Amino acid sequence: MTDTILEVRNLHKTFGAVRATNGLNLGVTRGQIHALIGPNGAGKTTAVNQITGDILPDSGLVSFKGENVTRLAAHRRAARGMARSFQITHIFENLTVAENMALSICTHQGHNFKFWQNSLKTKAVREKLPAALARVDLTDRADLPASHLSHGEKRQLEVGMALTGNPDFLILDEPMAGMGPGGTVALTQLIRTLKGKLTILLVEHDMDVVFSLADRITVLVYGQDIATGPPDDIREDPAVRQAYLGEEE
Amino acid sequence: MTHTQQQSIRKKACVALGAMILVLLPWVAALTGQEYYISFFSRVLIYAIAAVSLDLLLGYAGTVSLGHAAYVGVGAYVVGILFFHSAEMEPLFTWPFVFKGCENALVVIPLAVIISALFALVFGALSLRTRGMHFIMITLAFAQMLYYFFVSLEKYGGDDGLSLYNRSALPGLDLGNDTQFYYLCLTLLAAFLFFCTRLVASRFGLVLRGARDNERRLNALGANAYTYKLACFVIAGAGAGLAGSLLANQTEYVSPGLMHWTLSGELMVMVLIGGMGTLFGPVLGAAAFLFMEETLAMITEHWMIYMGPFLLLVVIFAKRGLFGLLTGEGKGHD
Lengths: 249, 334
Prior knowledge:
The structure holds two protein chains of two kinds.
Chain A: E1 4-15, E2 18-29, E3 33-37, H1 44-52, E4 59-64, E5 67-68, H2 74-79, E6 82-85, H3 97-107, H4 123-135, H5 151-163, E7 169-173, H6 181-194, E8 199-203, H7 207-213, E9 216-221, E10 224-229, H8 231-236, H9 238-248
Parallel strand pairs in A: 3-8, 3-9, 6-7, 7-8
Antiparallel strand pairs in A: 1-2, 1-4, 4-5, 9-10
Helix pairs in contact in A: 3-4, 3-5
Chain B: H1 2-31, H2 36-61, H3 69-88, H4 105-127, H5 132-151, E1 162-163, H6 178-201, H7 203-213, H8 215-220, H9 225-251, E2 253-254, H10 261-274, H11 281-299, H12 304-317, H13 321-327
Antiparallel strand pairs in B: 1-2
């Protein structure tokens, strides 16, 4: 019996006349890298937003670690071990790199109604900050405002922040978007080192990345999963080739 | 690195210089026979407390409140009403115990702070459910609501307000003495500023600044931005209440005008001129604003005609206001 960390059943979401999610089913096994792919407009980000709780589905079920979280607020899901990075870089532009990382560390220390001690000097931050910065190669950027980082570095920071809470489930929404080839290689390497330590749901356009990293792949077309399986099966699947790969290659 | 270090040294020098000027001011004023400036600068210090508290909302929580005067007014009325009952020998309430009002500063000032904070808690809890323009409007609406409530409250003077015959009593100090009152205001401002600088650098402050930058990201990290903003709103309300209680004492007069939206607007202008998100800037902003009001009003009753362009220049050319110009932080927009 496989250990399923995330299960999505018969999820529906419409925006006006658009059926963004139309009966989506998805099961992510603990410890695997599960990729979610699909052509533009297939509803990948909408699906992710419902998994994280940023938007609520019209109907269907999202269960995380065996608990029904369909209607749970985003910050509560995060507290249960779900972390995400965004498709469009979501960092705190006016804070320094160190402060960004510290904020992420602090929010995982329970409440933050600590009004007196300097945040960068608290015990948890002093213990974890150096390693957290080193993990994503940003140690020498620590004192720079995040707005001064290059696009690739912002991505690194974002992934690094998602990792500070030691989540057991990480959602990476197009982490490679807008990255140069060098950055893609570095980030692929980083994701590979995480393999086995935590479960990853990877939403990605870059097919090389997906096929080199993923254990399982789900293909989404018009808000519906049309195929799920290991990379080799997906590559051969005629429906997938027609709907997706056929257009791309 | 050296650049930020330089800035931080310059900033410390500016703050130290400002503190020195404020500490020596009554002494110099007395020496040169310009005692009037002692009471003028008491007013500056009091408005500075209110402006600094508003800066917490504008510059750190990223919530634009246009109703901050409400809490100044509540603080002032707490002092005014307690004084009224004490002077008229008429109990404020008789159940569950008889409360005859009070003139003791050690009671009325903390009470003013607490009651303003409670008002901020209720109004903040409701208004922080909205964002942007709606938030501005709802904070304004709450403040105006209180304004009209006190205008129609005949018992406490209604439109005409309430006169205090003397200032609150503080054991060991004579608050009726302008110099002693000045130093009380200065001490409270310094304490409040110190508290705020610690606050914004603390874990709470870090989360708050995160909420200002990117609320959705903060929620994804597992913190609920609403709670932190509300706590900040309450702290800012408490600060404004403190300013209100001092203002009532300084002018020995309380009126609904303290809650009017024009005062909220003036506080916002002080923050902008001084430098939003700098804490020390609003002190400078309060001084600049009141000084201009004072001097320009002697030339023309339409002194706002000069104030407007000045504000525009500061906002366009100095990112961190006058304080940013002094510390070299605000050169251009990046």
